[in-house]
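> forwarded from #structure-qc
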């Protein structure tokens, strides 16, 4: 079978690989039907994910059909259409029992797929702990509608959950890229008083406006963000800030535009260390939360998708065939042609 392999820093290759086999009784082999490229794949490519392993098949955001299953897999059958959780987890360790599946201690646990074990940018892939880590796709839901369930939408869902949003909050989201947009899609479900989005990319802000994902959009190249936020918050600053951009100055910005006692959620995956300006924010009494998604709410997300309360298909700006995936990488990494997300069709 063909798959995208991370061979070394800045060297990804689409090449012939061995078709995966069941290893544990709790595994399934999935025939991947639609896959996509995530910014985390680019982070791996550039060598910024220390835990990633050279030689691994990339891909942790995909959907497929169960092709084979281990003897202990109870919840899924051959032929089931499923969305895959970006984090595979044992469900039994200290962290899993608390819902902190990102830190599952199993060797196949946490973010393993497409990072430490072969993922879903191949025609077939092995999913460990299948009963924990797959979600059935209802017949009324298409592959494209389900595609982001296990990663982007899970991240947005998790970010909003730890953000503890209240009804009268003014919430600011910094960054309207794929993760920012999925944070917005989930944010809508919490119905805060006001949602403000910040991005330098007018195309992305246009998409936000067109779909009414936010009340206000701000471009730092055009306005003074700090002043604008004060204007919209009676001079206080934002109640909740989601930093989803991971840019050069967005970490600082998030701390600046948050009001005293606000919650700042860092969703972004930084490529460099960030510095907390502790003397300056002393007395501001901020709560800062950060980390990687604990992705185990896919059933709830799939329900929202089925009920049309979440529709992330607006993120799909490009549709390409698997044979052209290296070109898709080029477009995605260099943010060409207004790309947000590329749905890669594996059927052919
Ligand atoms: Zn990802
Ligand atoms: Zn575990």
């Amino acid at each position: 079978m063909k798959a995208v392999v991370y061979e070394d820093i800045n060297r990804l290759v689409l090449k012939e690989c061995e078709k995966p086999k069941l290893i544990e009784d709790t595994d399934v082999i999935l025939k991947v039907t639609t896959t996509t490229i995530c910014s985390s794949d680019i982070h791996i490519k550039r060598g910024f994910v220390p835990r990633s392993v050279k030689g691994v098949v990339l891909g942790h955001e995909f959907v497929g059909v169960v092709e084979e299953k281990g003897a202990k897999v109870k919840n899924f059958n051959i032929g089931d259409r499923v969305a895959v959780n970006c984090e595979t987890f044992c469900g039994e360790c200290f962290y899993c029992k608390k819902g902190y599946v990102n830190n599952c201690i199993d060797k196949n646990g946490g973010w393993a797929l497409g990072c430490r074990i072969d993922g879903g940018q191949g025609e077939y892939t092995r999913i460990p702990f299948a009963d924990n880590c797959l979600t059935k796709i209802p017949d009324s839901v298409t592959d494209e509608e389900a595609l982001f369930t296990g990663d982007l939408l899970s991240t947005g869902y998790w970010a909003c959950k730890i953000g503890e949003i209240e009804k009268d909050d003014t919430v600011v989201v910094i960054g309207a890229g794929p993760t920012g947009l999925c944070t917005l899609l989930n944010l809508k479900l919490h119905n805060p008083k006001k949602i403000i989005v910040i991005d330098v990319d007018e195309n992305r802000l246009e998409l936000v406006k067109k779909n009414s994902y936010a009340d206000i959009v701000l471009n730092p190249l055009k306005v003074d963000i700090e002043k604008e936020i004060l204007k919209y918050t009676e001079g206080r600053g934002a109640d909740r800030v989601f930093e989803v951009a991971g840019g050069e100055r967005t970490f600082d910005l998030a701390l600046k535009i948050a009001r005293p006692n606000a919650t700042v959620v860092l969703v972004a995956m930084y490529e460099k260390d960030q510095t907390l300006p502790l003397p300056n924010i002393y007395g501001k009494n901020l709560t800062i939360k950060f980390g990687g998604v604990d992705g185990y709410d896919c059933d709830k997300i799939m329900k929202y998708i089925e009920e049309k309360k979440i529709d992330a298909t607006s993120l799909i700006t490009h549709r390409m065939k698997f044979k052209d995936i290296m070109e898709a990488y080029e477009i995605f990494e260099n943010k060409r042609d207004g790309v947000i997300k590329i749905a890669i069709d594996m059927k052919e």
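QC bot note: The CA atoms of residues 84 and 134 lie 5 Å apart. The pocket of zinc ion (ligand 2) is lined by residues 89-90, 92-93, 95-96, 104-106, 109 (CB under 6 Å).
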